[in-house]
């Protein structure tokens, strides 16, 4: 296991280029299963989760190349396997996204219950209900979800209790090969949903309404492999935007879409930063201590839960106090415990947290408990006095492509080093 040694005090300045989104690329890789032949995905981040998904696809009989190069080629056989094993699936929530495409392609799929970061209970009821409405039987046996539709799936109206990203994606990927029309109501509207709909359409699917709450899918007989470029990672872009703000820096974020980060960038402006659009991204300049900003997480286009820890750090060093409300994942505040070690002033009450800005954070050993908690702790380390040792960096590796070198290039000090073994 490695850890990061972050030395605080530097002002981040310069340019950073963002790659494609983890939360899109993983689903695009699963969507490749829908067509026999070679699909090529560009701008795929070189992250741990992509390696896990590549291995999962290999176990299903695909030939996967290039996962450490940014361009991934996936050659899908005529009859892929249909069993996604526990040893891979348990480490990554997104592995559940093979459920829909394999059910559509094979008529049967066995997927172990997925794991992932400890940010709350993460149900699958909407995934299952949607597939059942499309005509599948789904059973839970010995830790595996077993879905069957030997006669194929049939299009139908499906409404979701909550605009779940994963459930929308699974139902969508199952419906593209179903007979007839499926309408998903209260669908998720994230840019990553639009990205997968764009890819599926390029493959020959008939989809209307991507990016709205109602997605209509007219099933087709078959899909073809294509070349597709992954949408830029709005959460990584947002992480660098906050890094610029908390370090009183001047960072230009390239290959980013400011329109996907509207509320977060607006909050930074309210906090005192200057945020301007550039040719292929945006620039954040901060010349004062950040002002505090309230944050309420909601499904897109609301404020992203995946940006909540970064804004907790901004508020922790602000010149005021703010309330953070977490509506998506009940355990995401576990991260705040680690910020307390650095001297932050935070009080939580259920899904609310009051963060009072302090004059200084003080470097300390801390533990990353999920991917964004890890990013938040790195940001906190960049502004804390002295050294912050961030353990659990495999969580950060799940979603950040080359974070250490990117921060170093901006003038920050983050070193990766082996974590000494603890006897306890
Ligand atoms: C790999 C990936 O893309 N991860 C993202 C995805 O996760 P993910 O797709 O898992 O998130 P969902 O939108 O499905 O989950 C949102 C909420 O709905 C609940 N729920 C979901 C499905 C279900 O069947 N039953 C149920 O109760 C979850 O427990 C959670 O409380 O969207 C989240 C919300 O934007 C992001 O934070 C994650 O980074
Ligand atoms: C929660 C996240 O990811 P996952 O759903 O893959 O755990 C995230 O990207 O912040």
Automatic annotation (TrEMBL):
CDD domains assigned to the protein according to its UniProt record, in alphabetical order: UdpNAET
Major subcellular site: cytoplasm
GO MF term set: UDP-N-acetylglucosamine 1-carboxyvinyltransferase activity
Annotated residues for binding of phosphoenolpyruvate: 22-23
Pathways involved: Cell wall biogenesis; peptidoglycan biosynthesis
Protein keywords: Cell cycle, Cell division, Cell shape, Cell wall biogenesis/degradation, Cytoplasm, Peptidoglycan synthesis, Transferase
SUPFAM superfamilies, per the entry: EPT/RTPC-like
The keyword Cell wall biogenesis/degradation is annotated on this UniProt entry: yes
Catalytic site: 117
Enzyme Commission code: 2.5.1.7
Family affiliation: Belongs to the EPSP synthase family. MurA subfamily.
Protein name according to UniProt: UDP-N-acetylglucosamine 1-carboxyvinyltransferase
């Amino acid at each position: 296991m490695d850890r990061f040694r972050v030395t605080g005090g530097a002002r981040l300045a310069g340019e950073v280029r963002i790659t494609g989104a983890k939360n899109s690329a993983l689903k695009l890789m699963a969507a490749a299963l829908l067509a026999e032949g070679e699909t090529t995905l560009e701008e795929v981040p070189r992250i741990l989760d992509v390696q896990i998904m590549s291995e999962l696809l290999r176990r299903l009989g695909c030939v996967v190349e290039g996962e450490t190069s940014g361009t991934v080629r996936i050659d899908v056989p005529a009859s892929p396997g249909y069993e996604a094993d526990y040893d891979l699936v348990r480490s990554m929530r997104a592995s559940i996204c093979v459920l829909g495409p394999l059910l559509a392609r094979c008529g049967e799929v066995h997927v172990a219950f997925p794991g992932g970061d400890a940010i709350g209970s993460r149900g699958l009821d909407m995934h299952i209900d949607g597939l059942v409405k499309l005509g599948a039987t789904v059973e839970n046996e010995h830790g595996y979800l077993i879905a069957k539709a030997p006669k194929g799936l049939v299009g139908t109206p499906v409404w979701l209790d909550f605009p779940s990203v994963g459930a929308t994606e699974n139902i969508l990927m199952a419906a593209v090969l179903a007979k007839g029309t499926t309408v998903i109501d209260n669908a998720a509207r994230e840019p990553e949903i639009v990205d997968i709909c764009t890819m599926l359409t390029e493959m020959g699917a008939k989809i209307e309404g991507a990016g709205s709450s109602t997605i209509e899918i007219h099933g087709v007989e078959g899909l073809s492999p294509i070349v597709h470029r992954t949408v830029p990672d709005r959460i990584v872009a947002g992480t660098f935007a906050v890094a610029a703000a908390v370090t009183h820096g001047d960072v230009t974020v390239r290959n980013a879409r400011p329109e996907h980060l509207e509320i977060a960038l607006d909050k930074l402006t309210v906090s005192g930063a200057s945020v301007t659009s550039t040719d292929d991204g945006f620039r954040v300049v901060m010349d004062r201590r950040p002002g505090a900003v309230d944050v309420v997480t909601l499904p897109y286009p609301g404020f992203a839960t995946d940006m909540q820890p970064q804004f907790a750090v901004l508020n922790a060093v602000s010149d005021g106090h703010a309330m953070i409300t977490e509506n998506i994942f009940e355990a995401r505040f576990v991260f705040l415990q680690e910020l307390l070690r650095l001297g932050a002033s935070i009080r939580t009450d259920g899904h609310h947290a009051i963060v009072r800005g302090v004059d200084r954070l003080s470097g300390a050993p801390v533990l990353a408990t999920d991917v964004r908690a890890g990013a938040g702790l790195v940001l906190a380390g960049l502004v804390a006095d002295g050294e912050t040792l961030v353990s659990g960096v495999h969580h950060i590796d799940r979603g950040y492509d080359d974070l250490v070198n990117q921060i170093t290039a901006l003038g920050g000090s983050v070193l990766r080093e082996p974590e000494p073994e603890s006897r306890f």
